[in-house]
């Protein structure tokens, strides 16, 4: 299964010319799942991967910079005659929030199912699951862990032949768990290979829940609203500094740290350098970048930056 994250919006609470409000698209096999939907998200998608037929949307919390793009997105899907059900999940109060803005998007021609989650809820998808967990922000807020199922171990064909198993259907029977001519699957199949894990922090102070869920993760996407020189302000507002995000990533031993929720008050390079001084495997994605997460045996996660037809600003070029 192909697995990647596309960064549609990486700004903090205020958009800039180059960074939209928070929105991250998970591409897992054929599934397309959006985490947060800040104002202008549909435009950000159109400019990059296209306005894809989303399967579901997950909100991390109810601050307006994380959901105001929903009414326009809903209406655009309706105007192009979508008929597939769209699933929307979020912390308690999500259904009430969307009901309060229902007049802005009106009656839809497709089913929209809104579900309030609780921390610890796990939703099963095809080959992976998504778990909601509490984080420490202002008000109720969630992070999410995307956890792939373990895969069967490698089949050792040479070993099977050496033990007298004939290539062909008998190989398939062994891989299906049967014993063939006295040869058991554990003799020719290695240990299960762990599934991939992606963790998104949402908006939060550094917290144990993120650290626990990110332990050994292939990719941690963590907010980094402040530089450490503004540590007090970060704590007051329920946010994290770049250094704190890097310290958490190092403690959790993640494969790659991606910093998001970038404030316009800082040069992006300053945030990245502060984090890399603590955790070298840190990237600071720009809008429309994506991180590919291959199977562990294929290599580490990699930040991919598409060609940009428009000239970048000096700050964004340096980032």
Automatic annotation (TrEMBL):
Matching SUPFAM superfamilies: Metallo-hydrolase/oxidoreductase
Signal peptide location: none
Sequence positions that bind Zn(2+) 2: 65-66, 203, 261
CDD domains named among the record's database cross-references: RNaseZ_ZiPD-like_MBL-fold
Pfam families xrefs: Lactamase_B
Cofactor note: Binds 2 Zn(2+) ions.
UniProt domain Metallo-beta-lactamase: residue ranges: 20-261
Keyword Ribonucleoprotein belongs to the record: no
InterPro entries in alphabetical order: Metallo-B-lactamas, RibonucZ/Hydroxyglut_hydro, RNase_Z/BN
PANTHER family: ZINC PHOSPHODIESTERASE ELAC PROTEIN 1 (PTHR46018:SF2)
Protein name per its UniProtKB record: Ribonuclease Z
Annotated source species: Paraconexibacter algicola
Gene from which the chain derives: rnz
């Amino acid at each position: 299964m192909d697995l990647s994250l596309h960064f549609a919006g990486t700004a903090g609470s205020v958009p800039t010319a180059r960074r939209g409000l928070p929105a991250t698209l998970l591409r897992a096999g054929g599934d397309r799942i959006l985490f947060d939907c800040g104002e202008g998200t549909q435009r950000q998608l159109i400019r990059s991967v296209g306005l894809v037929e989303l399967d579901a949307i997950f909100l991390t919390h109810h601050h307006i910079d994380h959901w105001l793009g929903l009414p326009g997105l809903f209406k655009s899907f309706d105007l192009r005659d979508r008929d597939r059900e769209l699933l929307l999940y979020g912390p308690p109060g999500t259904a009430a929030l969307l009901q309060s803005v229902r007049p802005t998007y009106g009656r839809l021609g497709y089913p929209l199912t809104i579900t309030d989650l609780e921390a610890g809820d796990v939703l099963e998808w095809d080959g992976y699951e998504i778990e909601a967990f509490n984080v420490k922000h202002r008000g109720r807020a969630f992070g999410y862990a995307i956890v792939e199922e373990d895969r069967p171990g490698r089949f050792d064909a040479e070993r099977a032949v050496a033990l007298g198993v004939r290539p062909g259907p008998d190989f398939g029977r062994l891989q299906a768990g049967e014993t063939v001519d006295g040869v058991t699957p554990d003799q020719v199949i290695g240990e299960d290979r762990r599934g991939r894990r992606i963790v998104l922090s949402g908006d939060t102070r550094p917290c144990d829940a993120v650290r626990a869920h990110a332990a050994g993760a292939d990719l941690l996407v963590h907010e980094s609203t402040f530089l450490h020189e503004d540590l007090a302000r970060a704590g007051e507002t329920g946010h994290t500094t770049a250094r704190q995000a890097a310290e958490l990533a190092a403690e959790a031993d993640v494969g790659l740290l991606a910093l998001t929720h970038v404030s316009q008050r800082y040069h992006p390079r300053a945030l990245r350098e502060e984090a890399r001084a603590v955790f070298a495997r840190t990237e600071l994605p720009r809008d429309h970048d994506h991180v590919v997460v291959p199977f562990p045996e294929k290599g580490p996660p990699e930040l991919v930056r598409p060609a940009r037809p428009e000239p970048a600003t000096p700050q964004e070029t340096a980032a």
